[in-house]
Design a protein that fits this description.
Layout lengths: L15 H10 L5 H22 L4 E3 L7 H8 L5 H4 L5 H10 L1 E3 L2 E3 L4 E3 L6 E3 L2 E2 L11 H11 L4 E6 L1 H7 L1 E2 L5 H21 L4 E5 L9 H14 L6 E5 L9 H6 L4 E5 L6 H7 L6 E7 L9 H9 L6 E5 L17 H4 L5 H16 L3 H9 L9 H8 L12 H12 L16 H11 L5 H22 L3 E2 L11 H4 L2 E5 L6 E4 L2 E3 L3 E8 L5 H9 L4 E7 L1 H6 L9 H21 L4 E5 L14 H4 L1 H12 L7 E6 L8 H5 L5 E4 L8 H7 L5 E4 L12 H12 L20 H21 L1
Parallel strand pairs: 1-7, 6-8, 7-9, 9-10, 10-11, 11-12, 12-13, 14-19, 19-20, 20-21, 21-22, 22-23
Antiparallel strand pairs: 2-3, 4-5, 15-18, 16-17
Helix pairs in contact: 1-2, 8-9, 16-23, 18-19, 23-25, 28-29
Length: 747
């Protein structure tokens, strides 16, 4: 065994799984039909991997929504309020992810968080006092046997007990030691059942090992695996990713794992750790092919690094699961001189195999790869480099300071208590998408398209005014995606046609590719923002995506630093901000939804490797506006409580957070750290189709006001409403404004 991968995309080459699940949600597909389509997708994946020559093929990396959710369901980690409702196994599963609102009850969806430092989201398991951890599911066993019936031997994959503990929510009075004992017993049963099926290898994912670990956590890991691995006959691969395991390396290699998977891409110290010592009786699954970016691997550099290790049991693998990259470049119309630089999931399979072959027998494949890296890809934009070189500390600071601006803006805008707004987008209906497609195919003139967009903007402006929103938005009907839209209007970007990547559940994104130096050649959002403002006497927010999010939700360059690439984008967005201001836009929202995604997993690296340039990059974007221009920003699902002070340093005037699914836990930290920026914690979850009642939203706002001063509080949904249906979006917003109006009377 010399080749392996950590995992593979599951949405389908053409997003078949997404569309099948959405049909099931609409009752246009039966459960059996959905299961059959999923089975076909798994078969295609396994056959693709096998045909590539990769030897160790994963199974149970497939999921209808999220593999963490799969693990929770396998182990009976289901909240009691949902367990009491008599739903099918599949509908219980989806209810955990999306919530349930029907004749049998009204259940909120479980919280959703970013999966470590990626744009993938996981459903947070909740371990209650009544939770009885036991093996109740069969998915991991069924999918192994499914592949076996096709003549394909696979390595079942499961999230490990240690990482499951770290990312789960614990209810009050839950005894952690009892949970650990129960988890060990459950995983023992899983391993035994796999052994009984004659499984040779099992992959246990432990990504939490790449975070900061203290002595207590290391001891917890030891307790779990010393007991779990005792007398095991099956080969267990401990798979890590998204960083290095410097805190626990010595412990990890001493435990009786048959193999250890380490990340050589994001793991800055991985190579040095392995050089120091790696047991000769264990397999090293070397994650040298980047599972999070789409550039070709530099074989010469990779092989040079691994040659220093002199290991016999070396397996070439990916740095993490390939679910973070698109399926294949074969569906892309890029010319060969561009496409040759890219490797999507299918091409990364080939890279793993070619690296293993070249390791033993360097030849034409290595020479061809070397040639690719011996010539420049594009002509540099010297004007952009000059602008970066001329940046001074002063251009990163906005004047006057926040306290003075806040007073000026309160007098200038005179908003009522608890000002209401939305995060920006309104539902993107099928009609809107079809009109955009017609424009692209030249089946529609630009004038006809503009009339259509203007009509939608007018309708939604009137409706927002009717329900009493204080700060309106134009709805972003002209935009396909909050990052792709900007990338299409900036130089230095390329765009795939089918480069879809799963973000959460059925939500897929198509990250643009930063090919070269980035600059703005013309205004991007001014046309429709200015048009919308001209239609009403109310304030209309200008809507932009921030530089850090544009970078983090793109496939970034690997030939320059992330800092330099982000500053290029920041200068381009700064030009857009100033143009909006010149055109009468007084409130400008600069979304940094993905601020945390490239944050190193280790706190010791946060300020020296990321926040030291990411926060100033945001400040650069808005530092030159007038004091009367109000700057908003928005942040998506993630764990922000530990970087609250850094967020305050962004020096925005208003920050909205996605907070509804996490029960507004971020408010305690805002209060504790005396957060100065005005805030809009999301008062309801837009990722679920359930409509919150007026009473529910009222209660949420009262909770907010118990911790945040009323003069600092804005009211808004959790996120943009692009993915929601029109009826549920309107009903939810009407309930929100009704709740606010009632509270204003009380205030």
């Amino acid at each position: 065994m010399k080749t392996s991968i950590v995992g593979y995309p599951r949405i389908g080459e053409h997003r078949e799984l997404k569309f099948a699940i959405e049909k099931y949600f609409k009752n246009d597909l039966t459960a059996d039909e959905l299961m059959n389509q999923a089975k076909e997708l798994r078969k295609n994946n396994w056959k693709t991997i096998k045909a590539s020559g990769v030897e160790a093929i994963p199974s149970n990396d497939f999921s209808f929504y999220d593999t963490t959710l799969d693990t929770a369901c396998l182990l009976n980690i289901i909240p009691q309020e949902l367990a009491k409702i008599e739903l099918s196994e599949l509908d219980t599963y989806f209810a955990l992810a999306r919530g349930y609102q029907g004749a049998k009850g009204d259940i909120k969806a479980r919280p959703m968080k970013k999966w470590f430092n990626t744009n993938y989201h996981y459903i947070v398991p909740k371990i209650e006092k009544e939770t009885k951890i036991e093996v109740v599911g069969s998915k991991i066993f069924d999918e192994y046997q499914e592949a076996k019936a096709l003549g394909i031997e696979t390595r079942p994959v499961i999230l490990g007990p240690f990482s499951l503990l770290q990312i789960s929510e614990f209810d009050t009075y839950v005894d952690r030691s009892t949970v650990i004992t129960d988890l060990i017993q459950a995983y023992k049963i899983i391993l035994q059942k796999l052994t009984d099926l004659n499984v040779e290898w099992v992959q246990i994912d432990e990504p939490s090992l790449t975070k900061d670990l203290n002595a207590e956590l290391i001891a917890e890991f030891q307790v779990i695996y010393r007991e779990l691995l005792k007398d095991q006959k099956i080969n267990v691969l401990a798979q890590t990713y998204f960083g290095d395991v410097r805190d626990i390396y010595d412990t990890l290699i001493e435990l009786p794992f048959a193999g250890i998977g380490l990340d050589f891409v994001e793991g800055r110290k991985t190579l040095a750790l392995v050089k120091q010592y790696f047991p000769k009786d264990k397999y090293l699954f070397a994650g040298v092919v980047n599972g999070k970016n789409i550039w070709r691997n530099n074989y010469q550099q990779t092989l040079a690094d691994l040659a220093t290790l002199k290991l016999d049991k070396l397996v070439f693998s990916t740095s993490c699961s390939l679910l973070h990259v698109p399926y294949t470049t074969k569906n892309e119309p890029f010319p060969i001189e561009i496409k040759q630089y890219f490797a999507f999931a299918a091409e990364k399979l080939t890279e793993v195999v070619e690296l293993a072959e070249s390791y033993d027998n360097p030849g034409p494949t290595l020479s061809k790869n070397q040639l690719l890296f011996s010539k420049p890809r594009f002509t540099e934009n010297q004007a952009v480099h000059q602008k970066i070189a001329e940046l001074t500390p002063a251009v990163f600071t906005r004047l006057p300071n926040f306290e003075k601006r806040e007073k000026i803006q309160r007098e200038h805008f005179a908003f009522p208590a608890l000002p209401t707004t939305t995060i920006g987008s309104f539902p993107q209906t099928l009609e809107i998408k079809q009109m955009r497609a017609k424009l692209k195919k030249a089946e529609l003139s630009l004038e006809e398209y503009d009339q259509f967009i203007a009509q939608h903007i007018n309708q939604w402006l009137d409706w927002q005014t009717e329900i009493g929103l204080d700060v309106l938005v134009h709805g972003e009907f002209e935009r396909n995606d909050m990052v792709e839209y900007f990338g299409q209007n900036l130089s230095g970007y390329l765009f795939s046609q089918n480069g879809w990547v799963q973000s959460y559940g059925t939500r897929c994104v198509k990250p643009p590719i930063i090919w070269g130096d980035v600059s703005r050649e013309k205004p991007i959002t001014v046309k429709w923002s200015a048009y919308a403002q001209q239609q009403t006497n109310k304030i209309v927010k200008g809507m932009l995506t921030g530089p850090v999010t544009i970078l983090n939700w793109s496939f970034p360059r690997e030939d320059i630093s992330l800092k330099e690439s982000t500053l290029q984008i920041a200068l381009a967005i700064q030009e857009e901000v100033l143009d909006l201001e010149k055109n009468g836009i007084q409130v400008i929202q600069i979304d940094e939804a993905a601020l945390r995604e490239k944050l190193p997993l280790r706190q010791t690296d946060w300020y020296t490797e990321y926040l030291d340039w990411a926060i100033p990059a945001f400040r650069l974007v808005h530092s030159q506006v007038q004091a009367t221009t109000q700057i908003h920003t928005h942040m998506c699902y993630s764990e922000f409580t530990d970087i609250i002070s850094a967020i305050d340093q962004m020096d925005a005037d208003v920050i909205s957070f996605e907070a509804a699914r996490s029960n507004l836990t971020i408010l305690d930290e805002l209060q504790k750290q005396h957060f100065k920026t005005e805030v809009g914690p999301g008062v309801y979850d837009i990722h679920s189709p359930r409509v919150p009642s007026v009473a529910e939203i009222t209660s949420t706002i009262q909770n907010i006001l118990s911790k945040i001063p009323v003069e600092k509080t804005w009211i808004n949904p959790d996120c943009g409403l692009k993915t929601r249906g029109i009826p549920e979006a309107k009903e939810s917003l009407m309930n929100m404004t009704t709740a606010v109006n009632r509270l204003r009377k009380e205030l």
